[in-house]
Amino acid sequence: MDSIRIRGGIPLKGTIPISGAKNAALPLMAATLLSAETLTLRNLPHLVDITTMANLLASHGVALHMNGGAGEGCGGRVLELTTARITDTTAHYDLVRKMRASILVLGPLLAREGRARVSLPGGCAIGARPVDLHLKALEQMGATIAIDGGYVDARVDGRLKGAHLVFPQVTVTGTENLLMAATLADGETIIDNAAREPEVADLAHCLIAMGAEIEGVGTSRLVVRGKDALHAATHAVLPDRIEAGSYAVAAAITRGKVLLEGADATHMAALIKVLTAAGVSVEAREGGLLVDAENRAIRGVDVMTEPHPGFPTDMQAQVMALFATAEGAALMTETIFENRFMHVPELKRMGADINIHNNSAIVRGVSKLSGAPVMATDLRASMSLVLAALAAPGETTIARVYHLDRGYERLEQKLAACGAEIERLRG
Ligand code: UD1
After folding, report:
1. Which end of the chain, C or N, has fewer beta carbons within 10 A?
2. How far, in Å, is the centroid of ligand 1 from the Cα of 172?
3. How far, in whole angstroms, is CA 365 from its chain's centroid?
4. 10 Å Cβ neighbour count for 294?
């Protein structure tokens, strides 16, 4: 297994191009299942999760054609997906267990074929993460659902029926699954308490380009009038606000200055507010976001994770690394996932002073972290260790790099271009 070695303490300076968003690209790829015509996605990031989704879609009969290689900076790759016919409505365990977002094929398969058998994703490192809300909502649209042999077995006679769905809790992939299903349903579907994440809006814009009728994009009430079929479309994946946010923290934690090329500040308001309150200068420029922490004192700021437009849970671990090196204390409260502090013991091994009380962590800044061998159990936790390592004098080796490869395109190259001493150790 590969690991990453970082010699920290160097302020980052330069430009980092921001890739297309993983969490937008995955549902956008699944949307191909809704139409027999070609869906062309531009600005696709080169990531392991994208390959996993491509393999899953291929197993359903999707023809995929990729143009452009990795390493091309802004612009990403172009993927053409054509689902002339769905050849298999089963999403097998071997593929689903690699990535929970595989559940995103459930709604489209059921809507187009009237049948879907999708392996239950099961637990994962950051919490139980059930899919009960996806299933209840599909049942409300007329599906019959059974759990059998570890699989969700969903059927519907004829088309799904429009319904008034009210999610009792905000769910991102749940909203996306039901939004896709509703585009081919018979009649009108209202989704209340819909997730307002920019990735949901990106999916809605793509579905509209495919001929879907959707109102309320970006709000908590989506109204969808179902169509008999959707058609070909071309769509560019929006920039990854979590990748951009992670590199904003990289600039801040090393007291450097970095231009995040292509980042969209309008999707990052909650994070920008926290970084600004902490003493970092964050300025939206044409072409990107300039993050400047040169010669600045950084203070801890209290943070609570919430559904968008609140502070994203996917940035909690990275910002915790920053506050581990800040002046004063920060109270960080995680409200989305019940077990998302796994980076804390590893950060403590690097000298951080953090105490967990239920779903809150008190982070007391220390003047210096120190390099150490560490490992993490999920994507964003791994990134928090990379960030801590960039700040810590000495050498840090981060094991289990495959977590990072799921969500950060060309991580070492992007950081090295700004002066970081970082290398991948093959093993
Ligand atoms: C998505 C993101 C993930 C992010 C998360 C929250 C993708 C591919 N992943 O995950 O990066 O951290 O949103 O912003 O976009 N829940 C239920 N039952 C359900 C569905 C969800 O109880 O049927 C709970 C979850 O356990 C969790 C909360 O609702 O506590 C929010 O989860 P959800 O928004 O669904 O997360 P994901 O869509 O899996």
Report:
1. C
2. 6
3. 28
4. 12
| Ligand 1 atom with minimal separation from the 104 CA | 8
293 Cα: distance to centroid of ligand 1 (angstroms)? 32
The amino acid present at 392, given as its one-letter code, is A
Say whether pLDDT at 44 is over 50.
Answer: yes
Give the residue, out of 171, 196, 202, 304, with the most ligand 1 atoms within 8 A of its beta carbon, to mutate for a pocket test.
Answer: 171
Ligand 1 touching residue 121 (CB < 6 A): no
**In whole angstroms, how far apart are CA 74 and each of 1, 42, 162, 274, 383?**
29, 11, 39, 27, 21
Using DSSP's 3-state secondary structure scheme, residue 72 falls into coil
pLDDT digits (tens, 9 = 90+) for 140-179: 999 999 999 999 999 999 999 999 999 999 999 999 999 9
Q: Which of 36, 54, 37 is nearest to 45 (CA)?
A: 54
Ligand 1 atom at minimal distance to the Cα of residue 338: 30
Q: What pLDDT score does 427 carry?
A: 83
Nearest Cα residue to 304 out of 277, 278, 271:
271
Ligand 1 centroid–CA 93 distance in Å is 20
Distance CA 74, CA 67 (A): 14
Measure 239 CA to ligand 1 centroid, in angstroms: 20
401: number of CA atoms within 13 Å, CB side? Answer: 19
Contact at 8 Å (CB) between 273 and 310? no
Q: Which of 146, 154, 97 is nearest to 122 (CA)?
A: 97
Residues β-bridged to residue 213: 225
Residues recognised as catalytic? 124
Helix, strand, coil % in the chain, rounded to nearest 5: 35, 30, 35
First-to-final CA distance of the chain: 5
- When mean pLDDT is compared across 66-70, 187-191, 210-214, 224-228, the lowest value belongs to 66-70
Q: Is pTM beyond 0.85 here?
A: yes
Length of the chain measured in residues: 427
CB of 83 closer than 6 angstroms to any ligand 1 atom: no
Q: Is 128 exposed, middle or buried (0-12, 13-18, 19+ CB in 10 A)?
A: exposed
The tokens describing 243, both together, are 């990748």
